Amino acid sequence: MTKNYNIALIGLGNVNRTLAEIIHTEGTALAQDLGFTLRVTAITDLRFGTLVDAAGVDLGAVLAMEPGQKFSSLGGSDDCDNETVIRTAPADIVAEATFTNPEDGEPALSHVRWALESGKSVCTTNKGPAAFAAKELKALAAKNGVFFEFEGAVMSGTPVLRLASGPLKGVGMTGFSGILNGTSNYIFGRMESGLSLEAAIAEAQDLGYAEADPTADIGGSDVRLKVTVLANELLGADLDSKDVPMEGITGITPAMIADALSRGAHWKLIGAATKNADGTITASVAPAMLDSTHPLAGISGATNAVMFDTDYLGRVTISGPGAGRKETAYALLSDIIAIDAQVN
Amino acid sequence: MTKNYNIALIGLGNVNRTLAEIIHTEGTALAQDLGFTLRVTAITDLRFGTLVDAAGVDLGAVLAMEPGQKFSSLGGSDDCDNETVIRTAPADIVAEATFTNPEDGEPALSHVRWALESGKSVCTTNKGPAAFAAKELKALAAKNGVFFEFEGAVMSGTPVLRLASGPLKGVGMTGFSGILNGTSNYIFGRMESGLSLEAAIAEAQDLGYAEADPTADIGGSDVRLKVTVLANELLGADLDSKDVPMEGITGITPAMIADALSRGAHWKLIGAATKNADGTITASVAPAMLDSTHPLAGISGATNAVMFDTDYLGRVTISGPGAGRKETAYALLSDIIAIDAQVN
User: Fold this and answer.
1) What is the tens place of the pLDDT at every residue in B197-235?
2) Rg (CA), chain A
3) A178 near A271, Cβ under 8 Å?
4) Which of A185, A228, B116, B189 could form a Cys-Cys staple with B140, CB 3.0–4.6 A?
5) What is the predicted ipTM?
6) DSSP conformation letters of A213-233
7) Does B151 contact chain A (CB < 8 Å)?
8) pTM over cut 0.90
9) CB spacing of B167 vs A157 below 8 angstroms
10) Is B342 on the interface with A (CB under 8 A)?
């Protein structure tokens, strides 16, 4: 009999909806490859309500819902009591994809805590829980014999955390520099083509890269949360994101962009951290001008990348998508694969 | 009591000598990080002979040997019978770093086979065993309850095989393109600066990047072995390296290099493989002109890189060193770490 994990989807926005589509349409093929099946046994969403079925909810019906249709029409409830569902649903793993307040990580943080407290592993793409409480949540998971995975909090499905903790284990990580916000990188690229900051932001908004309020992207706070997660996980820091100095991209003028370009250099918004000789960690978010030979200089468009500085290998760089529906749903799938590897 | 692995070093050239240095000088610090100690219990080398000590050979004395000094001076033998040592040494893991004939993978291939047959795990940076007999050797390892790891066969310590099999598991790998030979990449870069092919080769030889006979580097056969390993491991192919069409870099003229550069493009020696719709795999080694937006276009100097094509993430690229003493010794260390993870 094939091993199975029961999944509770908390939040049914783009990410968990895409995970549901993957499970519904590709689950059988994936099971061949992965050695386990996935069954969605609970879904909550503020807009749709709650659907719980220990035998597996009807994903075909969920994915075919009409605008305005609610879970009561599928035998569920129109209410959404996340705490009760997270604590009592017949699930092994909670896929948390609701919302994270950049100030305190809520409500995602409480969702993760409730799940771990009730003996369920968690995968999440929300930055908040990992940035504000990774240590507490990992200890809580260990105490309850479950796992807390959050690869997607940094570069969507592009693996950074597990590259560092797995294949690069023992390499002597001394620091990292990353392009961790695709929107600001896209904007710098368009400014290199001659657009003003304002025009580049407007274009990024039209393309769906930037939010209506682009402050978190261009002001640096999105990168700051990711730098905090990376510094704490990769370098063993114990940083509070509010302690990381932060500078956004709005101080970089078209003239500075053009001047750099004339010398073959590129402005990038860099999130970085370094382990100092005394063991302390210095982290920062700031624009930097990189010459053409820098491994991050050629990372263009909405692509993200992290360059690791290491004792044994010098510089190692990974680049890939930092956003996207399918890419972020894969982050959750990769977390589930990692949970399975640890369960065994 | 701390867990320990006994290691037999087969070949004491640059790679295993550096691994011995790491164990000797950093072993205690590494044990803290990794949770196990390493003890070298056997060393063989054609120049020095054989040294076996179940309590651990005196690495300080070995590393301080004068030119011409042999292992008989340290209580060992001046003979080197690799088969007997590999089969009988009191070792858990054999670190194979001798020599691999590009025609049949010997003698490294036999060394690996003897180790696995006698119930010892193997780590190696030799391409031969993985390129010619990975399937057979992995089956042999499984039968004997041990492990065969060869990360360093592709990009030295930069993890490609374990990035694909671990953090990228389930991503739907459909192909890859790589810059897998630092020498030829360095030569193309110097030709972009105006050197002739001959002058660039001579410079690469002076710097120690290229062998006295640079045929394997510039003719493509080094890349062909690596493409074979990658295609078989990442795409589930069953390729014989001799079936992979191969073209080296000597057909690319300074005029072609200059012409590409004038359009912002770069010539690279690309080893690639793709999964076709019918499940077959097409692999190749050939120079290609990449425009500036290609993820591999900016990989300069002796750096290596592999770009994965995937269903869920599109393109993901990892770059890092593809050679070097310390870098390649780390590949062996990372193999040992991977063996430890599987033992547990």
Assistant:
1) 999 999 999 988 877 888 999 999 999 999 999 999 999
2) 21
3) yes
4) B116
5) 0.96
6) S-HHHHHSHHHHHHHHHHHHH
7) yes
8) yes
9) no
10) no
